[in-house]
Amino acid sequence: MAQAEDDATGDDAALDEIAAELYALPPEGFTAARNGRASSAPRALAARVKALRKPSVAAWAVDLLARQGQLAEAVELSAALREAQDDLDAAELAALGRQRRALVGALAAEAVRLADEQGVSVSSAAREEVEKTINAAVVDAAAAAAVLTGRLVRTLEPGGTDEATLAEAVGGSLPGAPAGAAPRPSRDDLAERRARKAAEKAAREAERAATEAERELARIEARRGKIRERRDHLRERIDDLRAELERFEADEAQVQDDLTAADAEHETARTAAAAARKASDAAQKAIDAPR
């Protein structure tokens, strides 16, 4: 029994390897290449290779993205979207929704470009199918696992990703959900997660408030320091002016004393000059008197 399971697992791996190689080819060359590989494969595997279906152009374009690793960001976004939905975080969900639309549009455009490089034209209708498939991978972990195989044979619809649908959409074996895809959390888990997020949000807001308060404190302290410097400068200037005023007042007092002395000397000299003039006039009169 164990041997049979090992053989089945080995056949699945071999089939998936062959399928990945075949789905890397442009769709028009798929059938001939598939028949050629089937003819050279062991009998048990040959029938399974021959049963591989030709991919639609849209599915093949999505496979191009998967093989180049360009769908990894979409898968990461899908995990973030599921967590935001579980947490009922409306703001985060809206932001992720905008990011998802932009990312899906960009990936669809890149798929069209990659297909064009290989000479395959993707119609507008096929491009819409590409976008729907990427959207399905974003919102559903099982769809993401199927898309990431790079072995899609037909496109997916968001919400239409039950196991039977996925099995029909993938060439080869169907993988399980990615390792990072966890079951939806229980009500208690959600409550705990919401409480943690609320606490984290409160902590972030408190940190922002503290940072803003510290920034305001630093601004006021800087302004206060400049005012203090201005006050100290004015006090120094006032002290200098007071010292200079004292010097001027002392000089003025000395000048006043000198002026008082000069006034006294002036009065003495004036009196002497008047007396001298009077004496001179008297002498002159004596000379001029008739004899």
Automatic annotation (TrEMBL):
Biased composition (Basic and acidic residues): 185-213
Regions of compositional bias (Low complexity) in chain numbering: 171-184, 270-291
Region of interest (Disordered), residue spans: 171-213, 263-291
Domain of life (superkingdom): Bacteria
Protein name as catalogued: Uncharacterized protein
Organism: Microbacterium lemovicicum
